Amino acid sequence: ENYITDDIGISTWKEQAFLSHGALLAKSCQAAMELAKHDAEVQDMAFQYGKHMAMSHKINSDLQPFIKEKTGDSMTFNLNSAPVVLHQEFLGRDLWIKQIGEAQGKGRLDYAKLRETIKAGKGVTSAIDLCRYHGNKALEALESFPPSEARSALENIVFAVTRFS
């Protein structure tokens, strides 16, 4: 098998993540405000919240194989996930291809070995930073809403996906 991943940069990753995850949530938040007869500005803030919260959530889920305490050696991960894409960007394509080669044994990819290689690089910490960046953007969008139980609940969703021990 050929494990060379698509050469996607983090900007392409973000675009794909938004289209597959963020757009739906962002538009749902926006529509809810529209139904409640709020003006365009409030609808836009809701859209921003949904978009950034979804990005933060997606990155958090991409990070799980790299930050979970107990990760089974056989546990695979997506080579187009945020930490891997960032790792690949820091390394450059040639070094990444070399690392993939080094993690291949008996015709299959040794995910445990590749995971350790990636954890030793900058991709994981950068993904955590990116997760927090989107979380902060989501919280900023909520600042235009008056304090309420609903707002607190939305803030808590962000806190949950941006908390890393």
Automatic annotation (TrEMBL):
Identify the Gene3D superfamilies for this entry.
Answer: Farnesyl Diphosphate Synthase
InterPro entries named among the record's database cross-references = Isoprenoid_synthase_dom_sf
- This protein is called what? Decaprenyl-diphosphate synthase subunit 2
Q: What is the species of this protein?
A: Galeopterus variegatus
